[in-house]
Amino acid sequence: MSMSRLFLVVTAAGLALVVSPVYAHGFGTRYDLPVPLWLYISGAGAAVALSFVIVGLFVQGASVVHAYPRLNLLRWGFGRALVHPVVVTTIRIFSVGLLVLVIVAGIAGTEIDTLNFAPTMVWVIWWVGTAYASALIGNVWGLVNPWNTPFKWAESFFSKINPDGDFGLDQEYPSNWGVWPGVILFFTFAWVEIVYGQSSVPGRIALMALAYTAITWSGMFIYGRETWLRHGEAFSLAFGFLARFSPTEIRVTDTTVCEHCLVDCMDLDGNCIDCAECFSAAEPEYREFNISPFAVGLLRNDRTPTSMMVFVVLLLSTVTFDGFTATPLWADIFNFLIDAIPNISVVGTIGLLAFPIIFIVVYLIFAKMMSSAGGGKVSYDVIGRAFVFSLIPIALAYHLAHFFAFLLIQGQLIIPLISDPLGRGWDVFGTAGYTVDIAIVNARTAWFVSVAAIVIGHIVAVYLAHVIALRTIAERHLAIRSQYPMMVLMVGYTMVSLWILAQPIVEAGG
Questions:
Q1: How high is the mean pLDDT of the chain?
Q2: DSSP tag of 362
Q3: Residue 208 is inside which H or E element, if any?
Q4: Is residue 384 included in any domain, yes or no?
Q5: Nearest to residue 503, comparing CAs of 252, 326, 336?
Q6: Helices 180-194 & 344-373, crossing angle to 10 degrees?
Q7: Are residues 52 and 129 in the same domain?
Q8: Residue 87 domain flag
């Protein structure tokens, strides 16, 4: 496939995702499908299967990984303005201010969650909104991370008063830890979001923000700021993975600067991509801020430890479990378990633990099948680590389909809240009287765009898996054979995803 055709295909898929996500939360109306649900689900599965055939016919090699087109925005004044220190510093100060406001609102504001800035900012604007921005714009979290900025300021201040000293303990990060600290912290976050019954209580949000601040700064102080961001800071990892789908990247073309980087930032092909430290340290002529096709960042030839594979699967499984909790099947399971274990949090925790375990086991079983179909020349654990980033478009598509209407409707609450963040009756910016428009999107649109998001996400995943197979397994015919189990897995998950999205919304135990 020519690079121009690749650019058009992948970019079209990415643009389709921009307009495709919606979920049924927040709707007061029901939409009856014009055809039976099984026909929608089987048709979507067939579309994913057909994409496998098309990709197998037209994608002949893995050279596209290195040859994708890039447009460097730093050639023009507006592109250089975007990365100007004044612009970057202003954005970072604003982000730190938002974190402070969340904590202050949680401690000093009203406990009515809809009238307090903290819940809407954290659960709607930050968590859902940043995930979208990461995937559809770029690694914005690397820019706005409010824990990174103050620590970096402290490092700079300390270096001025003590040029020969190190700000921190500078302990060597244990190599066998991988990103397991990030896995643990992200699972904890998912538990708070899905299971914890007081996740929207402003005071609890403030305490959790302070606790995470302490954990993050402690990790940075002990092991170094960049090291902790790449291994322990859960959201740098999660948003960074989603940002690989995005159409932007920062790149350093003279990798000699990487010799002074505090982390191993280069991939296995010798490229330094999305390393903010090297980008800042490099001379201007060696910097690139590129627009590239959607999803090519997921083909980066990086080192992928087992812990990183688990993190990606955890990202997919937790958002799936969140949707599954709105189905009658989960209500039945919940009611069965609650009779034996009369504790809502314990039952929810069991479900949340079960989903990642099931997902990882199933994924590794299919990795074993792929290894066998590929002639057994590549072990199943290598297969599992190599192909895991092809799951990111699926996680993204489900996130889009699951949360977009929630963002569109609940996100409007931020308009009055910016004028009265503490719920004290203020009207600082004149927006306190704004009324949320719950009819901004209807159920019919929600269903169709959810189907589009899920199907397109899986088709992009099929393409990525095919290219990775050609890179991982040398013989083309064996590489294609290895993809048969992956096709079955993706078709199956397409159908399961649509089934979950189509279920009536119920409240477990209600």
A1: 87
A2: H
A3: helix 202-223
A4: yes
A5: 326
A6: 130
A7: no
A8: yes
**Range from 40-44, 222-226, 427-431 carrying the lowest mean pLDDT:** 40-44
Q: Nearest Cα to 396, choosing from 501, 247, 239?
A: 239
DSSP three-state, residue 430: coil
Is residue 202 predicted with pLDDT exceeding 50? yes
Task: Tell me if 277 is assigned to some domain.
Answer: no
Can you tell me the distance from the alpha carbon of 3 to that of 205, in angstroms, rounded to the nearest whole number?
A: 47
Q: Residue 357 burial (CB < 10 Å; 0-12/13-18/19+)?
A: exposed
DSSP state of 29: S
Answer yes or no: do 187 and 223 share one domain: yes
Residues spanned by the domain of 328: 36-59+304-504
What is the DSSP annotation of 171-189?
PPPPGGGTTHHHHHHHHHH
The dihedral built from the CA positions of residue 20, 26, 30 and 36, taken in this order, carries a sign that is: positive
Give 374's Cβ-side CA count (13 Å radius).
Answer: 29
End-to-end C-alpha distance for the chain, whole angstroms: 53
- When mean pLDDT is compared across 123-127, 274-278, 303-307, 450-454, the lowest value belongs to 450-454
Is residue 282 in some structural domain? no
Q: Is residue 56 within 8 Å of residue 478, measured between CB atoms?
A: no
Q: Which has the closest alpha carbon to 26: 419, 412, 456, 329? A: 412
Residue type, 275: C
Q: What is the largest CA-CA distance in the chain?
A: 72
Q: How many structural domains does the chain have?
A: 2
| Structure-token pair, residue 121 | 């900012």
Amino acid at 180: W
Among 221, 247, 273, residue at a domain's last position: 247
Residue 32 has pLDDT above 70, yes or no: no
| Identity of the residue numbered 396 | L
The neighbouring-strand residues paired with 249 are 290
Per-residue burial over 136-152, b if 16 or more Cβ lie within 10 Å, else e, is bebbbbbbbbbbbbebb
Q: How does pLDDT run across 404-430, given as a tens digit for each residue?
A: 788 888 999 999 999 999 999 999 999
Cα 85 from Cα 81, distance rounded (Å): 9
Asked whether residue 320 falls in the same domain as residue 468, the answer is yes
